[in-house]
Amino acid sequence: MGTKKLNGTVIVTYRCNARCNMCSRFKAPTRPEEELSLETIKKLPPMYFTNITGGEPFIRTDLKDIVRELYKKSDRIVISTNGYFTDRILNLAEEFPEVGIRISIEGLQETNDEIRGLPNGFERGYSTLKKLVEMGHPDVGFGMTVQDRNAPDLVPLYKLSDELGMEFATASLHNSFYFVENKNVIHDRPMVAQNFEDLINELLKSKSPKKWFRAYFNHGLINYIYGQPRLLPCDMAFDTFFIDPYGDVVPCNGTKDKEVMGNLNEQTWDELWNSEQAERVRAKVRHCDRNCWMIGSVSPAMHKYIWKPATWVLRHKLKPGKKYDMHELKVVRDYEEGRVTREELDALSTCDLSSDPNDGLRRNAVSNHG
Ligand code: SF4
Fold first, then answer.
1. Can you say how many angstroms the Cα of residue 345 is from the centroid of all Cα atoms in its chain?
2. Which atom of ligand 1 is nearest to the CA of 288?
3. What share of the chain is helix, strand, coil (3-state, %, to 5)?
4. Ligand 1 atom closest to the CA of 234, numbered from 1
């Protein structure tokens, strides 16, 4: 296990300046002094891909030092941000011209600012994006988390990203300790799915194979919001990991409670990764029924089981006329024809208002350590 390069996500802070309606992390931030140190980051294994995220990672004023350290062990780094700290972002992009920057924009101006709760959030995020493009930064993109409120902005925002020559990444609502949420659920599934269908057809029309595979990812999002089993297996914690601001290594950010494989402040990487505790978490992943569909767990699966998305892409590209129709998913037909009810689909989601969400903070995590 030791030498294989991994896919890692480094959550550098739980502090956040945004107030998103689908994420309560800002209510449960970390204290700066307890966040991942450079010493711990030096202990991470070789990675073929590293995502740096938060909270809002640019809140950390030592982010450049973190990136410099991570470049010693990672082939590619992408930072997810809300784009608010324009100067810090541009400054970092200047020093690291190959770093990927993904800015979350939750819709066109009014929708974004309402969802994100950041004054002038759209203006700030969009102007950061434009400035990165102007300075010729090669790897810039939008990220959007689709919910009922912003679904109609999906295709317009994709078109905007396309005009600017940017990547366009999508997600939908999830509940977990990471988001400190258990109330997220899509209410009007057919409406949201219709917007995804339109996006999928736009992506399939393009000449870019990367976009065709994104179409498959979005097809998986329709499947997810209808509460169906994942289209691809989940292999988190096998060649993929997350590390939180406390140095706790976890399989992913989708579990209800924080599932700790070990702590990198206290252990070496090899001790942690090969521990019995890590094996116990892997066994849980094998039986996990949360069926989440986030790029962090799907992208490695799409590479590993490439034949499945590739067959899907080929089948749809070769189709004459309208390439994609969400009714290819049986559950969409069943819902439309009344064979399954909204309540039944809600019950299949991870929305669960019966208890408070776990916030994954250290004071709550003690009992999870093996
Ligand atoms: S399905 Fe995979 S990514 Fe989602 S919570 Fe389970 S183990 Fe994590």
1. 23
2. 6
3. 45, 15, 45
4. 2
Q: Which residues of 323-337 are buried (b: 16+ CB within 10 A; e: fewer)?
A: bbebeebebbeebee
Q: What's the pLDDT tens digit per position in 205-239?
A: 999 999 999 999 999 999 999 999 999 999 999 99
Give the global pTM.
Answer: 0.93
Nearest atom (ligand 1) to Cα of 252 = 8
- Determine the distance separating the centroid of ligand 1 and the alpha carbon of 221, expressed in angstroms: 14
Separation in Å, CA 15 to CA 29, 53, 132: 5, 11, 24
Q: In this structure, are residues 12 and 54 in contact, taking their beta carbons and an 8 Å threshold?
A: yes
pLDDT at 84: 92
| CA dist., res. 29 & res. 271, Å (int) | 29
pLDDT tens track for 50-66: 999 999 999 999 999 99
Measured in angstroms, how far is the CA atom of residue 73 from the centroid of ligand 1?
Answer: 25
**Using CA atoms, how far apart are residues 197 and 202, in angstroms rounded to an integer?**
9
Residue 1 confidence (pLDDT): 46
The alpha carbon of 236 and the centre of ligand 1 are apart by a number of angstroms equal to 7
Ligand 1: distance of its center to the CA of 255 in Å? 6
The pLDDT assigned to 137 comes to: 93
Ligand 1 pocket list (CB less than 6 A):
234, 236, 251-252, 254-255, 285, 288, 290-292, 297
Give the chain's residues under pLDDT 70.
Answer: 1-2, 363-370
Residue 369: what pLDDT?
40
CB 17 within 8 A of CB 118: yes
Distance CA 176, CA 167 (A): 26
Q: Whose CA is nearest to atom 7 of ligand 1?
A: 285
CA of 138 to the centre of ligand 1 (A): 31
